[in-house]
Amino acid sequence: MKLRRIEARGLLAVAVVFGGLWAVLKAGSEVKEGETGAFDRAILLAFRHAGHPDQPLGPRWVQESARDVTALGGFTVLTLITLAAIAVLLIYRRRLQALVFGVVVVLAQVSAEAVKLVVARPRPDLVAHLDLTYSSSFPSGHSVMAPVVYFTLAVIVAAGEVRPAARRLLVVGSVLLVIAIGASRVYLGVHWPSDVLAGWTLGSAIAFAAWVVLHRLARTPLVGDRLAETPLTSELD
Questions:
Q1: Which tens digits make up the pLDDT trace of 94-135?
Q2: Minimal CA–CA distance to 77: which of 24, 122, 167, 141?
Q3: Helix axes 193-217, 95-119, angle to 10 degrees
Q4: Whose CA is closest to 112, among 149, 58, 68, 159?
Q5: Which of 210, 194, 101 is nearest to 140 (CA)?
Q6: pTM (2 decimals)?
Q7: How many C-beta atoms lie closer than 10 Å to residue 116's C-beta?
């Protein structure tokens, strides 16, 4: 029975990842056929002054704030957060959690780049870009990586928190941050809304699979370790 539960959770994690990837590729097919064009244009222009697609809504400080928020989902910031988190987990002897976290971040990055190559969607040409871009548009890399990093970290940290209010705050905070990062990509004019929705789908699927794996590993000691992994349901001490 125990082996069956392990296999079921493993299959669930794999199914979720591939399901998310399939959904994103399906959306990419619709993007290529232009089926999301009206939706994308309507949302993108909603962030601009009517008749002036080069002028985003709000004063200049809003643009600066959007750039600050979008940086929280950028490669440099997320790499630093990932390395710091892995180092802390290793210090607390949570080796399996550090390994899983590192693997899912790399998996997410590779998946996002692979889909970008397959779909090869150009960046929006309807509005002015308020941020630098270096790759194709679909899916939004920021929107893929943000949920992978922030949702997974929220699960790991919240599991060691005994206060329900603190756990809820971590989860809600991570969700709001992921939404803000995705919205900033559209506001800055560097992604179509469907790019962001696809990124959230793929990133959340990978983050959910990571949660399934971490939940299982929390009950499995790492053979050869002097100390077993700290359970996800115990305090981080």
A1: 888 999 999 999 999 999 999 899 888 889 988 888 888 888
A2: 141
A3: 150
A4: 149
A5: 194
A6: 0.81
A7: 20
